[in-house]
Amino acid sequence: MLFYLSKIIKAFIIPPGLFVLSFIVGLILLKRKPRLAKNILIISVTFFSLMCLPIFSSVLMTSIETYPALSDEKIQQSNAQAIVVLGGGRQYDAKEYGGDTVSPFTLLRLRYAVTLHKKTQMPLLVTGGAPLNDRIPEAELMAAVLIDDYAITTKWLEQKSKNTAENAALSAKILNAENINNILLVTQAWHMRRAVRLFENQGLTVTAAPTMFEGLKNNEISVFDFLPSIKAFQKSGYAIHEIIGQLWYLMRY
Predict the structure, then answer these.
(1) What is the CATH architecture of 72-211?
(2) What predicted TM-score, i.e. pTM, was given to this entire model?
(3) Which of 175, 214, 208 is nearest to 194 (CA)?
């Protein structure tokens, strides 16, 4: 019940649901309070327009991508004992695979984890459950991709978590039982700040291993950065989602 409620609330406090709600409120108030309604609609349209600009989405992403790419030198200095890969969602009922499979986000994380594993030979832990409780846990889907596509066996599967905080808490229990307290943590660059804090709260030493950087590239700006695009709107949405998530997790965890 709480899972569904959180999804409904999230749908209307994060774009595009936020814009739908604001447009509805603006239209309702148009006759009663035209000035307020006009301001709501102007702000909504302006913010929507900004979110569609690559320069805006890239700046947003840059503000939350606080960890740099992991160098080989940093890997050696970390003295890490294992690689932990956070689940990043699934593709439901993928017809070509005959059922659920990992999402593009998760696949990118796994691909980078494979790169790290080949460099270090560290064992892998994948973490992710099944929020709806009627599906294969995400960790199992991840482990299947690792063995089927990369011929790499996952040492540990954490299959009960439903969010990043539970990823951290339940993974830490598995690692503690193996006397492991130092890890490389793999997730999207824009998600890393929240993830590192939660894993460190569990007493683990964490070296961030971010992937899929979406911020400004070498500070190079062109005319195309000011042309609206669907991808820019999507990136802005992910950034805003993460900013709100960081604030919520700071209050709750």
Answers:
(1) 3-Layer(aba) Sandwich (3.40)
(2) 0.92
(3) 208
